[in-house]
Amino acid sequence: MSNIGKLWSRECIVMHGIDATIVASHQLFGGMTFDQIIYNFPFAGFFKDLSRETQLRKHRRLVSLFLKNAKAMICENGEIHITHKINDFHIEWKLESLASFHGLRLIEAVEFDQSDYEGYKTKCGFGGDNNFNCYPRKTYMFGLKGAQVLLLS
Fold it and tell me: In what residue span(s) does the 25S rRNA (uridine-N(3))-methyltransferase BMT5-like domain sit (predicted)?
């Protein structure tokens, strides 16, 4: 609640219960576009009774539908950021190929810097309030294919 209070004090709009897989058609957004859309640690859930391949399909479907929706909501030079663990099971989600399928290109993949999100803490979903081990992790930044980007360093 303290984070929500801070956002409200900065005149941010805070919404809950928005399904990332259908967000582009949500009536509250009314065709709005954004410079950045950020999804930290997408996760479809724990499915211990399902095969590894079936679990992968569920997680990849979540990310794929999110990317499809986010693509419809970014401006011409906008970016979609997904922060994701990069080991074992998680690397098999193949974020870059999912993005490419939706006509997105990888702009950059960088180490996730939690300090960029003041007060951010990872939280286990599904009834837990504990933090989870999010190492190793990267933030993947995707943009529209064909969009012109100037990167100075």
Answer: 2-123
